[in-house]
Write a structure and sequence with these properties.
Layout lengths: L7 E2 L12 E5 L4 E4 L5 E5 L4 E9 L6 E7 L3 E11 L5 E9 L7 E2 L5 E3 L6 E3 L6 E2 L3 E11 L4 E10 L1
Parallel strand pairs: 1-2
Antiparallel strand pairs: 2-3, 3-4, 5-14, 6-13, 7-11, 7-12, 7-14, 8-9, 8-10, 8-13
């Protein structure tokens, strides 16, 4: 029986010489390739899926709330929002991102999403700009609110690129 055995590296090894690619294991149990330009690529193993959540009490039509800062590039894979309270509530919201928090930012879903559900919520999986660059702020904005929802719960699920 033939087998390849790799010693796990605690860190990324030195960049290979021009025209070469290194294949190596890291202590996270995954296999990586490193090209001669110094770019590391995951070759084997699952990417980390993460999520960030926020609850906004008594949301208005003018919320502008920083959710998080990401030091690495990420790709949004889903967003789930649900409302609490009110009579036939409706809330239009959008998630934006930019390396400059004072900028208008890019919308993950252009025009935002209107959530009316008090039970299962809105599950958003189609995006206009799901790729968020490294060193970006991610924030929530609301643009319309009726029906007196007493809370909004939002979760953003993403993969590290």
């Amino acid at each position: 029986m033939s087998e390849l055995i790799f010693k796990e590296n605690a860190a990324t090894p030195d960049t290979p010489s021009a025209g070469y690619v290194k294949l190596y294991a890291k202590s996270d149990g995954r296999m990586y390739a490193l090209n001669d330009g110094g770019t590391e690529t995951l070759v084997l193993g699952q990417k980390d899926r993460e999520s960030k959540s926020v609850a906004v009490e008594n949301p208005t039509a003018t919320e502008d709330i920083t959710l998080f800062f990401t030091p690495v590039a990420i790709t949004v894979v889903s967003m789930r929002a649900v409302l609490v309270g009110g009579t036939t509530p409706s809330l239009t919201w959008t998630v934006r991102h930019s390396t400059d928090r004072t900028a208008a930012g890019n919308q993950v879903v252009t025009g935002g999403t209107t959530t009316t559900s008090l039970t299962t919520g809105s599950n958003v999986t189609a995006f206009n700009d799901a790729t968020i660059p490294a060193d970006s702020f991610v924030w929530l904005e609301t643009t319309a609110h009726t029906g007196g929802a007493t809370a909004l719960a939002l979760t953003v699920v993403f993969d590290e690129d």
